[in-house]
Model the fold of this input.
Amino acid sequence: MFFGTMKIAKRVVFQAIEDATDLDADIRQDALRWIGSQDFIEACSEAGLDSVQLKKFVAQIMKLPVGIRRKQVQSLLDRYI
Done:
């Protein structure tokens, strides 16, 4: 695996997590659908990320009010990017 590929895969995964908190319902639903797919698992694997933990994170933040969701995602991004 090339470092550049890993970095791109990580960015794709985190973009999906950001999109899962979008105010636009269509964007949010598309992101959540992708996060539930095999493609998400493969992208996480390529990025060296734990897809199970990230899915749990997304499930937890989706229970929170929108403003807090976005802060939680930003906190995650600050740690990994």
